[in-house]
Every structure is written in C-alpha cells, then in structure tokens.
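Morning F.,

Quick status update on the modeling queue. The single chain you submitted on Monday has been processed. Sequence for confirmation:
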Amino acid sequence: MQKLTNKEEEIMQILWKLKKAFVKDIMEEITEDKPHYNTLSTIVRNLEEKGYVGYTAYGKTHQYFPIVTIEDYRKKFMNTAIDTYFNSSYKNLVSFFAEEEKISAEELREILAIIEKK
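Structure tokens below.
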C-alpha cells in the first residue's frame, strides 16, 4: 500500500465519507483550494491506479468508491509513523501527546481501563 499525498488523502476522506461518488460530487465536498475539475479527475484516476478506489462505468462517466478501508489505511500508516517518529514505542507516542497537552489524565485513565479489560 503506497503512502498518499495530502491531496489524495483529502480525496480519500471524502470517498470514505460518501461511500461512492462522481468527480462532481467530490468537487462539491472540497471546501478549500478547489482544484480544477480535470486536476481532480486525474487525482482520482491516480488513486485508482494505486489500488485505493474502484469505479462503476456509466457510459463515459465513472462513479468511484473506496477499495481500501479507512481502518486499513490508518493501521498501516499509524504503524509507520510510530516506527519512524517514536522509535516503535507506544509509550513514547502517548508521552508526546501528554507533554504537548493533547491528552488529559482522564483520557489516559480511560485508555488504561481499555487496556486492562483486554
């Protein structure tokens, strides 16, 4: 599974949300930095070539749908990020968020409760 560009990830987020969409539907969901229609169409075709989306043809038009689930994508690239930026340590990951004040003590207690249940 190839890493996606930021714009490709944005498009995939839209497809995961919509489940299936024509290029015009995707365009309507983009709020900032709208690409030209042809550019967006090229990005979607690139996602198809990378194996992230499939399509159903209706004449000359295509309705696209995700093949890769958001859960599979998240798992693959979260693991890569943890390996790369936190020396494969979930402790380092959690410590980072605690130091940055992005996670509260209450949230940490909830995480501990989840871990202890398993």
